[in-house]
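Page header: ASSEMBLY MODEL / two components / 730 residues total.
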Amino acid sequence: MTKPLHTTLDVPVAAGDEEGYSLRMGPQHPATHGVLRVDLELDGETILECTPHVGYLHRGFDKLAEHRTYAQGLILTDRLDYVGAMANNVGYCVAVERLLGIEVPLRARYIRTMVSEMSRICSHLLWLATHALDIGAMTVFLYCFREREVLLELFEELCGARLTFSYPRIGGVRQDVTHSFIRRLQEFARTFPDWIEDYETLIDTNRIWLKRTRGVGVISGEEALDLGITGPSLRGSGIRYDVRKARPYDAYALVDFEVPVGREGDIYARYRCRMEELRQSARIILQCIDQLPPGPIVGDDAPDLVMPLHGHPGKEADASRWGTGLVRLLRDRALFPRGEVYVSVEAPKGELGFYFVSDGSGRPYRMHIRSPSFIHIGALPTMAKGAMIADLIAIIGTLDVVLGECDR
Amino acid sequence: MHVLVLLLQILVLFAVVMLHVAYATYFERKIIGHMQVRMGPMRVGWHGLLQPIADGIKSFFKEDIIPEQADRPIFLAAPIICLVAMLTSLAVLPFAPGWVLADINIGLIFILAMSSLSSYGVILAGWASNSKYTFLGGLRSMAQVISYEIAMGLSLVGVMMLSGTLNLSKIVEAQGTSFGGMYIFPQIIAFFVFCVAMLAETNRVPFDLPEAETELVSGYATEYSGMRYAMFFMAEYIGMIVMSAIGTICFLGGWNGPFTVPGVPFFWFVLKIYLFLFVFIWIRATLPRYRYDQLMELGWKLLIPLALANIALTGIVKAIIG
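Prediction written out in full:
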């Protein structure tokens, strides 16, 4: 007789503890934000051990990118963190531009900063909505979606898509912004702080909310650094690290904003951080609109697939030039240097990094994505130990993970 | 003949309550919808008025799935226990002077007993489903009911002391002579404790831990489907109505009102129940959910001492005033 294989599907039972109650949460569970599976060892409702399992949404982006040109790889990044896809697009483009040494015109940099912050608001709104719903406050969920809808409509006006934008492109952005877009966005950014106050009225001083978030899921700044946590989740623990300030990209060095930092490192501190970030994002958007300079929206030396429908934006539209970009891309090998580059941006969830190894072929030899969600899920066992089931839900919410980004 | 009349009365009461249950779901969805900047049901009938009927028909015709691992007889019986216990407690409620099916002397105790019994349904459902989430839901329900039953019982002791009776009709009559015609004024602490315990007893937000959909999927009802699932919901809504009725009878003066509405003796009673139900729904739209241990803390460390203090206070005041 052969021993049956021990696969990951066998839920391990804590050794020597026959009273142990193991619960497998997910991959289908209302509060795991996608297809996260968490195996729990419980004592009553207290979590003794928590083992997250990822990979249910794995699509192999790292490998797929190896068979695409740099321009084609862009659409993969839409499907990472689909809640704030614009930030991924921007991150990818910034990385490729760094690799190819392309200079982005100022107007495009401002537009990118603007849309990155829009996607940050989108992502944080969805985080707040689902986080509050997980803790049981249903109304906040629908309030947030009301404002998110305004932003999604703005995105639609900007680039025709509501979720998977692929709006930035290597060397700039795909289309210029319209006057009505700017007007509507300005109106939104001006009124948005009032909406934030609306959400805060509902939960900020609510006794139950405070009880559920204060002192729960505490992680010290040191531990958070050890675990590689970034973004608002790290700043909630008192570490002032923001890629936008540390290594500014696009127009972040040109606008004025603050990086909110918490102290306690619990769920409430992270909640406060993100709420402040929403306000700062609105501020950045307004500044971008005010400072938006005229000029081209795509760099002259940008190699890209020409969009057949739109001509080559930023350059004169000329039907006879369709495809020249593609031809150039394929022929002009010298355009692509050999070497490697790691560039990270501040995505809504945390530090989103792209690592490229280029062999000069016009396709990445290797692409690696440092996705904050994956790393944050790694922090789950530490944070959930000793907590209760209800806390685990709140902790998953506060880490703000999106499984599309985690599994890639 | 007497039995026939009684049966008819039961039938009428049953029909009226069931209609209320159906439309309580409708109003819950509508009210929460409007509080959350959306419309609620709009498609079935004018402004979705036929939605509860459609829901009822749907759950009747849905397949009744029984998990293979479940303890079959108990699994089948659990929702019935819930529903029957809740329906039975309707019998002792006085809707208007003389409008009561069973005018028994221990009405208040009877209601408390029945509401405890209905939680057996929840616990057994959680156990018999033989599934992990339902089991946790059942455990939570058990702990919750035990703690809050005490708080609720103690909060009603003050009312018993003031009225000197357990008969619900007599409690209402006794209130007529008190200040404002309602016990809410002398028993304001008890009313507060009762309201919180009432939410916990009926598994409503912020105490909906036994079914907490974001934690335990659907808690004790996870494995149920079709009509049996609907029965749990009916029991929950009848529970809400019964608890509202108890609150109305014990604290808000039952059928008494500022003026009598000719021909509708139950006018004020029903109005007060609707008020309670609205507050139930309002709270659901507003508050997050408590954590299990915080729920216990609130029950044992705050509500029970408060209720005990209220009993002592009521006793002292009654002894002094006479």
